Structure formats: C-alpha cells, structure tokens
Amino acid sequence: MNAGAIVGVELRRIALDLVTPFRTSFGEQTSRDVLLVAVTVDHDGAVTTGWGECVALSDPHYSPEFVDGAQLVLAEHLVPLARAAPLTAEALHDRLAGVKGHQMAKAALEMALLDAELRHAGRSFGEWLGVTRTTVPSGVSVGIFDETERLLAEVADYLAAGYARIKLKIQPGWDLEQVAAVRSLVGAEAALQVDANTAYTRDDIGHLCALDEFDLLLIEQPLAEDDLLGHVQLARASRTPVCLDESIHSLRIALDAIELGACSIVNIKPGRVGGYLEARRIHDACVTREVAVWCGGMLETGIGRAANVALAALDGFTLPGDISGADRFWQRDIVVDPIVMRDGEVTVPSTPGLGFDLDMDFLDAITTATNTA
C-alpha cells in the first residue's frame, strides 16, 4: 500500500465494565481502562481515520507495560516518530525501532495505521492477509474462583453454548483437583488446556507433570517469562506440550524458544509482540518449523477482537484461540456488530479495515479522557 501522511492522532481512554470478574494468578479484573488510538491519514488528498486498541492493563502485573505508561510513550515518543514523514504500516516497525520495548503501545499505533490504510484501499484485513477460511473455532478462557463448584457451573455453561475449547486458569493450590473435576465434567474427548500465567517455579516441575494424566492440549506459560531453561526442563519431563505466551515478545525470541526446546506450541498475542505484522512473521516461521500456533486474547474490545479473528484465520493457527464472543466479557461492546460465537465458531470479518464499525454514541458515553498527539 502507498505511504500516507499522518495528519491527526487522538488518544482516547474509555471505561468498560466486564460482565463478571475475571481472575487469574496475577489478579482480578472487574473493568477495563482501555486506551484507543485514532489515526487520521492523508493519502494524496484522501483522508481516512483508522482505530487501534492498546491491550496494556491498568497495572504492570501481567507485563511491564501499563495503560498510563503506554499513553505517555505514544504521545511523547512513538507518534512524533510516525508523523515525521509519510509511511505505511509495514514501515512503522523500522521507524519505531529506536524506542526499546513498549510493544503494546507500538501495536496500538500500527493497528490504527493499518486500519486507515485498509479502509482507504477498500480491503478487509483478512483479504490483505490472504486468508481463505471464513470462520475460525472459538475457545473460551475460564478464570479462577473461590469454589470448584462455581468453576464447574461456569464450564458447563460454556459447553452448553458450544465453545470448541475450554482453557482453565491455574495457580498453586488451584490446579490438579480443579482440572480433574473439569476433565470429568467435559469428558475424555473435549479439548481442554490450562494457563498458569507464570505462577510456578522450577521447583514445581514434578507437580506440574501430574497434569499429564488429564490429556491436556497444552500447559501455557507455567514458569516466569524469562525462564526459558526452566521451560526446557519441564518440556523434557512432561508429556503435556508446553506453550509459551508471556515469554514471546518477538520473532527472534520465538525462534530461540523453539530451537532450545522450551516449547512446542506458541501463543501469538499481537499486542505482546508489537503488532499484527510481527504476529504474522511469527506465524510464518512457526509454520515452516511445523510448530502449532494459536491466537491469545487480552480482553479486547470489538476493535482487537475483529483483528484477532482475521489473524486466526491464517492456516498455521491450528488450535482454537481465545476468541470468544463479545458477550463473554462485555454487556455492550463499542462496535456496531460485535463478534458472535455460533456452533463453536466465529465469522471472519469481511468489511474494509480491520473489520469493525464503531458505535460512536456509546463510545462517547464511556469516554473518560481524550488527548491529541
């Protein structure tokens, strides 16, 4: 696509309540303070606005990034670099390379620029990626509760709704008993996996190997994100495939982890790796190496959810991702046609741009602050 000049950037904060609290090993969320990025681009006189979403959370518990920091680095460092001269979304990565880290902030800016470019060109994100699938399987992530009975009731509801895969959040003290109960509930053939969000240490490897009896699809990020060696040791000891999530910040790290044997499956979260273009590069490299990938979620609004569905339609995404229907998290989404799960699948958006139209009246009603950059 042709380079365009960025002529306006808006940083908008919104407050969006979750339908129910979502608890993991690093904390509980009841609402999201979301940073949206609107980029207005001039392509030879044709002006188009695109939107992106920053997946950083309010506090630096899941990752070093957090929403206030992301807004600051966007306003003071990333946006000025992007506005220096006309560019394409594909060129943005190199333009921003001098700013170390801040992958989620970079990804939000890339999303907005890519959305503007695709809207200008009249192309959908799926078409631009070259996907052939029109639907993708939908998995659901189930948080931690105070009682196992609550967990089982929640899982039963998701089974009845038709989700293609169940993912359980686990932590020390909430793992073997709960996984055994859920496996008994869902049956031996159901797709079941667990996610520890870095809650364990190398000392727990023997304990984690006890999960082997439950025939799980994978165990996701059991150890600290910088503990590749520990994951190698677990992968050698366990029959359950090890998947990395928080550890994967770039294509280079993904390739290193695969080469070392730290994982046999990769969870690709576009926000965590710096954007959808880097996510595509990781996908392509994993396909070449016959490593399974799936698309993770970060409680996205309809902006990120639509883009994730298109990404997950690439052929290498062979496992169901965390792409539930919008009603799993939001009473009301910020887009006109929220993602809906039917018969265990969601439809790949086909409209120009990343695949959404904003509900501007609702968006304005939940906006807490706007700034230009």
Task: Characterize the structure shown.
The protein is an alpha/beta fold. The chain has 2 domains: 5-122 and 361-372, Enolase-like, N-terminal domain (Enolase-like, domain 1, 2-Layer Sandwich); 127-347, Enolase-like C-terminal domain (TIM Barrel). Helices cover 35% and strands 23% of the residues. The chain has helices spanning 67-82, 89-95, 103-121, 125-129, 148-161, 176-186, 205-209, 228-237, 251-260, 270-273, 276-288, 302-312, 360-365; strands at residues 5-24, 27-43, 46-54, 135-137, 139-142, 165-169, 192-195, 219-220, 242-244, 265-268, 292-295, 341-342, 345-347, 367-372. Helix 2 runs antiparallel to helix 3 (103-121) and helix 5 runs parallel beside helix 6. It is globular.
Write the topology of this structure.
Layout: E1 5-24, E2 27-43, E3 46-54, H1 67-82, H2 89-95, H3 103-121, H4 125-129, E4 135-137, E5 139-142, H5 148-161, E6 165-169, H6 176-186, E7 192-195, H7 205-209, E8 219-220, H8 228-237, E9 242-244, H9 251-260, E10 265-268, H10 270-273, H11 276-288, E11 292-295, H12 302-312, E12 341-342, E13 345-347, H13 360-365, E14 367-372
